[in-house]
Amino acid sequence: MPYFITLLILAISLWIGNSAVSLFLGILLTLFYKLPDDFFTQKYGSKILQTGIVFLGGSLSLGSVYETNSEYFLWISAFVLLSFGTVILIGRLLGVSHKLSFLLASGTSVCGGTAIASVAPSIKAKPEELTTAITIVFLLNAVAVLLFPLANGYLELSDRQFGAWAALAIHDTASVVGAASSVGDIAVEVAATLKVARTIWIVPLVIFASWLYRTKSEGFGLPPFVVFFIAAVLLNSYFEPDVLTVSYLKDINKLCLLTGLFCIGTQINKDSLKLITIRPSLLACLVWAMIIPTSLWIVQSF
Hints:
Distance between the termini: 59 Å
Order of helices and strands: HHHHHHHHHHHHHHH
Number of helices: 15
Shape: globular
Mean pLDDT: 82
Helix content: over 70%
Strand content: under 5%
Number of domains: 1
Structural class: mainly alpha
Number of strands: 0
Radius of gyration: 19 Å
């Protein structure tokens, strides 16, 4: 019976296709239905996430991304690094834990839930830390999809400017495209293209996170899944697979991330949820309040 219920809810989460929803459904399952301690979701959640990261690397090509975004790549890279550093700094001032600050910095500066889920195994984040980070970013993304198009009614940005603003200021790729689609096709094209330049920062981010949070037994080495991730990126950059192949790799990555997050959700209990406090939310909101006007100024300067 536990297997049937679990697989049914997992299938629903995969059908919905949202990372936060998958995580929340996993949490709801374990809150209302007691799973065995040795259940497969308890043992394999992180492994499935790690597998998804490897397939994510297979869909990323450093050369093609730089070629597509060469005009803005340096500006976007500087913006990513500054955003990441700001979250870490303010997180220390607010007393937010190092790992939670790192997760929020990853989601804020790179690509929302995907970055958070990709980095979590590298830094050995606790399930409640992952839950907190994804929940906060999910809520901010929902607000952005609603408010950014409304704000444009007063700002009167061109379609290209709005697309660039969305690509810089909104965390998650799906939310970037969702907000831009309310403005026009040109806004969507610009937003999606520039967002790729932020997404590519997952590569150095995962490597840096694995090195920074390595254990003594690992020395200066990297966990095996990170090595495979780097190898997948290099293979993609060298062979340049066709669009269909890359699409399949992205689908497998999404399937693994959604399944992994669902499994992580089943590891959460009521005591873990009580650990979610106001400080991480305040941290994310403060940084976002700085990012929105800063990114607006950048796109209006071009």
